[in-house]
């Protein structure tokens, strides 16, 4: 089969670049893709051998870069015991209770569902914080994750999670998973790096060192060892941090300091580090994160679903923190796609600022928070920002020379009819705009809103059967 890699995308209604300020939009209306890279943007004529994509009435964005996920949770959506629980109780009720129930088949199916959901929102790069590890595991989750991403044509960053200590909330569970030994964890990072890691700026496969939580998964000394191994191997560091107030309480009780200070002491800050959440931070923690150039994976839907709060992105960005967007696992976000996530980010940043508004007689200086985040900001966080925290600098923006990772959205649903500015539609209107094309390195992954060869109805039936099996294995009585 001859798969074209050279494209001329013609007559786009709007093109958003992922850049800021006056560079956030570009007139186009045509984009040339040659050998997987953006070769030209402007008014262009077709060259011999180029395949055409008619983008009339469509909007072109850089493909999304999702910087925090737990794909195995794609079969744990809306789990009733955890549905109305805040973070710690939810962890015990849903992911930790179910994770030992996964076998190779259900794990692979969950990964596939999550990746397909993301591709259908225009996402090309997925960083998965994968922490389903225990000694003597009967399947290689890393291999399955890379295989499934490869099969769909997506870029995949494996954030190798895991723990060397058992949290109390796991020890009390009937299906507790045992932690790994530090040496085994570090040896597996070396194995994965040799097998998969590509340091190139447009890599399709990356490895990241990512103990599940900074405060609870290892001892302080071990956490420091993970940072040193990462830097020796040229890998980035990722973990959860300051998702709820419990992090502040735990860090004070265990270490007598703030969570960010604790990370700083274990060499876990810097431009090669990004954290999911960062919802509950003290002002001095924001300064530390910013001055070190660390990054955030902002997960507004999960933070909303768990009632954790809303990260203060304008303050973080002003301090120097690199901002990106992650969907987080679908067990705490029943819409784990990048269009839903960025729509939520846009609304919630504004609502957050509005919550701080006070009457002028009480010292207030503004009425509301509509200036907290523009569509261009949210798009930049979800594309260029994500590429930056992952160190994949050839991705995330639509510019000549960059990798041709782009999403072409058709605004053919009534929710988009009547828009004065079609460019904002995919983010501002919510829902899922149809994906006319998703290109990843010039390869067309989505064709007219379909993934070629995929039977979505059959996938849904498999998911239903797998949910029943997981419930049986986790001891759910029906
Ligand atoms: Zn997470």
UniProtKB/TrEMBL annotation:
Report the Gene3D superfamilies cross-referenced here. Metal-dependent hydrolases (3.20.20.140), Urease, subunit C, domain 1 (2.30.40.10)
Q: Name one GO molecular function term.
A: hydrolase activity, acting on carbon-nitrogen (but not peptide) bonds
Membrane-spanning residues: none
InterPro entries, from UniProt? Amidohydro-rel, Metal-dep_hydrolase_composite, Metal_Hydrolase, MTA/SAH_deaminase
- Show the SUPFAM superfamilies listed in the entry: Composite domain of metallo-dependent hydrolases, Metallo-dependent hydrolases
**Where's the Amidohydrolase-related domain?**
59-421
Keyword field: Hydrolase
Tell me yes or no: is Hydrolase among this UniProt entry's keywords: yes
Family per similarity comment: Belongs to the metallo-dependent hydrolases superfamily. ATZ/TRZ family.
The protein, known as: Cytosine/adenosine deaminase
The scientific name of the source species is Ectopseudomonas toyotomiensis
Q: What is the lineage of its organism?
A: Bacteria, Pseudomonadati, Pseudomonadota, Gammaproteobacteria, Pseudomonadales
């Amino acid at each position: 089969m001859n798969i074209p890699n050279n494209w001329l995308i013609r007559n786009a209604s709007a093109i958003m670049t992922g850049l800021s300020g006056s560079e956030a939009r570009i007139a186009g209306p045509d984009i040339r893709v040659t050998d997987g890279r953006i070769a030209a943007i402007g008014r262009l004529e077709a060259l011999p051998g180029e395949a055409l994509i008619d983008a009339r009435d469509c909007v072109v964005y850089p493909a999304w870069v999702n910087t925090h996920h737990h794909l195995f949770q794609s079969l744990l959506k809306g789990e009733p015991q955890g549905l109305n629980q805040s973070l710690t109780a939810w962890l015990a009720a849903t992911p930790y209770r179910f994770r030992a129930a996964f076998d190779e088949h259900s794990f692979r199916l969950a990964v596939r569902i999550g990746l397909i959901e993301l591709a259908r929102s225009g996402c090309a790069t997925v960083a998965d914080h994968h922490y389903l590890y225990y000694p003597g595991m009967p399947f290689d989750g890393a291999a399955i994750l890379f295989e499934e991403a490869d099969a769909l044509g997506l870029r995949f960053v494996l954030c190798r999670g895991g723990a060397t200590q058992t949290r109390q909330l796991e020890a009390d569970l009937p299906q507790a998973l045992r932690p790994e030994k530090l040496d085994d964890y570090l040896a597996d990072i070396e194995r994965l790096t040799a097998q998969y890691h590509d340091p190139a700026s447009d890599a399709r496969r990356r490895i990241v060192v990512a103990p599940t939580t900074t405060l609870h998964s290892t001892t302080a000394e071990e956490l420091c060892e993970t940072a040193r191994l990462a830097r020796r191997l040229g890998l980035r560091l990722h973990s959860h941090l300051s998702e709820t107030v419990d992090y502040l309480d735990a860090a004070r009780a265990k270490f007598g300091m703030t969570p960010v200070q604790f990370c700083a002491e274990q060499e876990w800050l810097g431009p090669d580090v990004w954290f999911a959440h960062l919802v509950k931070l003290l002002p001095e923690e924001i300064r530390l994160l910013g001055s070190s150039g660390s990054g955030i994976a902002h997960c507004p839907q999960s933070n909303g679903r768990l009632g954790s709060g809303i990260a203060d992105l304008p303050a973080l960005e002003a301090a120097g923190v690199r901002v990106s967007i992650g969907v987080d696992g679908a067990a705490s976000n029943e819409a784990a796609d990048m269009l839903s996530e960025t729509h939520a980010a846009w609304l919630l940043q504004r609502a957050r600022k509005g919550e701080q508004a006070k009457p002028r007689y009480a010292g207030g200086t503004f009425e509301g928070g509509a200036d907290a985040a523009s569509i261009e900001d949210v798009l930049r966080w979800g594309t260029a920002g994500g590429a930056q925290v992952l160190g994949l600098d050839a991705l995330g923006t639509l510019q000549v020379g960059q990798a041709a990772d782009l999403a072409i959205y058709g605004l053919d649903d009534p929710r988009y009819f009547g828009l004065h500015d079609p460019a904002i539609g995919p983010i501002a209107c919510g829902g899922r705009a149809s994906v006319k094309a998703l290109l990843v390195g010039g390869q067309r992954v989505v064709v007219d809103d379909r993934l070629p060869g995929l039977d979505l109805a059959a996938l849904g039936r498999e998911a239903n059967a797998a949910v029943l099996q997981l419930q049986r294995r986790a001891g759910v009585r029906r």
